[in-house]
Amino acid sequence: MKRIFLFVITNLAVMVVLSATLRILGVDRMITAQGLNVQALLIFSVVVGFTGSIISLLMSKTMAKWSTGAQIIDPNAPNGHRETWLIETVHQLADRAGIGHPEVAIYEGPPNAFATGAFKNKSLVAVSTGLLESMTEEEVAAVLGHEVAHIANGDMITLTLIQGVVNTFVVFFARLVGYFIDRVIFKNERGVGIGYYAVVIVCEIVFGILASVIVAWFSRQREYRADAGSAQLMGSREPMMRALARLGGLEPGELPKSFEASGITGKGGLAAIFATHPPIQARLAALQQMRVA
Question: pTM for the full model?
Answer without folding.
Answer: 0.80
